[in-house]
Amino acid sequence: MTVRATEHQKPGILPAEAISALKATGAISCRRPLDVDQIQPASLDLRLGRTAWRVRASFLPGAGVSVKERLADLALHDFDLAKGAVLETGCVYLVELFERLKLPFDLAAAANPKSSTGRLDVFVRVITDGARAFDTIPTGYNGPLYLEISPRTFPILVRTGSRLSQVRFRRGVSRLSDLELLSLQSAECLVDAAQPDVAAGGIALGVDLAGEVIPGLQGFRAKKHTGVIDVDEAGVLDVEDFWEPIRVRPGRTAGLVLDPDAFYILASREAVHVPPDYAAEMVPFDPLVGEFRVHYAGFFDPGFGNPAAGGRGARAVLEVRSREVPFILEHGQTVGRLVYERMAGRPGTLYGADMRSHYQGQGLKLSKHFKPVGT
Ligand SMILES: Nc1ccn([C@H]2C[C@H](O)[C@@H](COP(=O)(O)OP(=O)(O)OP(=O)(O)O)O2)c(=O)n1
Question: Does 258 contact ligand 1 (Cβ within 6 A)?
Fold first, then answer.
């Protein structure tokens, strides 16, 4: 007898409704009730708990060792986040999250910084007890979650309940092959490129350095020695206090020399679209191209850029840093790949259908903390 797979049993990324069901069955538990908007179309935002530890260095506990055991050696001091605290650049902090997981044996989870966190150049990664890899929570994991936080450019003000990271739940294998990706590209136009480049399970994204998104503007370079950014306050900061605009120089080749000490916000040349039954993730274009790194935050929600959810194709935001040496980026150069995965079911609310979505239909967009510029 064949049993018809229900939405909650099908392979794929779990939609909001199935994430709610995990909460109901105790696979997700929290020390305080979920915030109303904490479950997103294909992910759950994770909240900072009360205590932060400043640690000597980033670490992975390794098999059989708990994070608390490692903290006994590595913590320099701890402090309370209840009334808010500033996390300084160049330091590594660890915070226990409110959410705990007790995953069934057919469900794994993967964490990623929220887009707003990546756009501020705050490096965050989830670790678990016994972890041998960051941001990876294996099937059957039963235990607490911790967030490593390391602000790179701006000092940030965080508090208990701040949401810097998010987690997706995945059943089985749901990634599209190159062939499936090509056929979805012709049916749905995932990336509006004249000649889409599909390889290694991803579709290539290039960088716009010709000022096609906001005329005359290539992007933004972060200023140094700035004030503090409150991660929970949207739309309040003046762009010029934190960013220098990088302008296109008429008559010059559209390129940009990346300074290894600087952080840049750029936009993809192509508009991106995620159909409602899929979720996407931006991955580095080629790990062998080690000169620069694009993006820390790579989850793209079902409905991003989709007409059904008020989008009309939206640019991906590229968070870019050069590594050891200055590196020249050229207009249109491939900087990342979007991989697409099937959803286990279509989420009831798509990204952008809700007024709280900050980046639907975006052009070259800084994080939500800044007053809007351009598009
Ligand atoms: N490098 C990236 C990563 C993501 N996104 C887009 C696709 C996502 O669907 C959208 C929102 O991502 P998050 O949910 O991570 O962002 P926030 O939670 O910070 O924003 P919001 O408050 O709008 O949910 O941003 C992007 O343009 N460029």
Answer: no
What separation, in Å, do the N-terminal and C-terminal C-alpha atoms of the chain show?
55
Residue 128's Cβ-side half-sphere holds a number of Cα atoms within 13 Å equal to 27
**Listed residue (1, 11, 14, 6) closest to 348, CA to CA:** 14
Q: Report whether residue 282 contacts ligand 1, using a CB cutoff of 6 Å.
A: yes
CA-to-CA dists, residue 95 to 27, 160, 356, angstroms: 21, 10, 26
Q: What is the pTM of this model?
A: 0.93
Closest approach atom of ligand 1 to CA 112 = 15
Structure tokens of 75? Answer: 């913590």
Half-sphere exposure of 143 (CA within 13 A, CB side): 18
Which atom of ligand 1 is found nearest the CA of 116? 19
Between the CA of 199 and the centroid of ligand 1 the distance, in Å, is: 24
What is this model's ipTM?
0.94
Split at pLDDT 50, 70, 90, the class of 1 is very low
